[in-house]
Amino acid sequence: MNRLKNKTAIVTGGAQGIGAATALRLAAEGATVAILDLNAERAAATAAEISSDAAVGAAGGSAVSAACDVTSEDQVAEVFGQIFADHGRIDILVNNAGITRDNMLFKMDRPDWDSVLATNLTSAYLCAKAAQKFMVQARYGKIVSLSSRSALGNRGQANYAAAKAGIQGLTATLALELGPFNINVNAVAPGYIATAMTAATAGRVGSTPEEHQKSVAERTPLGRVGEPEEVAAAIAFFASDDSSYVSGQTLYINGGAR
User: Which DSSP category does 107 fall into?
Assistant: First the structure.
């Protein structure tokens, strides 16, 4: 499919996990993808790997990278401005950057609260604000943000749950504000996806990633955990014109769990 041919997309936190899978999927559908990450070396390696993929080249897609602290308004403005200068457009924004600093509320330090809110929620506000300037001018845009099943509440994740619930409110509000400019704003809320982040969660609770995944799979209707590529597929739908009349929605990707 070449649903995104000639589009320019930005994926924050795109060097690994769901972000890298999303960057690959968008590029494979024809987009030029800018991977933003704090780790410049890893982001550049991921971009190079994507650009060298034969399927990506056949679709006309490619990937570039830039170091960016998406919690810094100045850095976001500078990097987004440069991407626009280089490519002449910003069509798609995927707000994927995220961290966890898990702990029970009574043991959660203020810096761990602040850093999770800044990285998981404030960055989405900053990046959406930067992107919409170009999207409004073009009267076209797609913004997709990463929420989580944890938005419904998750023991030991008061900071993360609050941030991911905030993403859903931000998404619904931006859909109202930006809809008149033909900008679609949606979110995806993954359940348990096999990534480095969930592997770290397993370690926090004294389990191996394999044991943790097995436990989650046993209580998931589909009988397994999710893969980053499955989240990327949903993001690609929201980034394409197949979702042209869908906005303000949060799609849960959790294998049917309730």
Answer: G
Which domain does 140 fall in, by range? 8-191+228-253
Nearest CA among 29, 137, 165, 25 for reference residue 80: 137
Residues with catalytic function: 160
CATH number of the domain to which 174 belongs: 3.40.50.720
Tens digit of each residue's pLDDT (9 = 90 or more) over 185-219: 999 999 999 988 887 777 777 889 898 899 899 99
What are the pLDDT digits (tens) for 90-122? 999 999 999 999 999 999 999 999 999 999 999
Query: Helix (H, G, I), strand (E, B), or coil: what is residue 153?
Result: coil
Report the domain count for the chain. 1
Is 116 within the bounds of a domain? yes
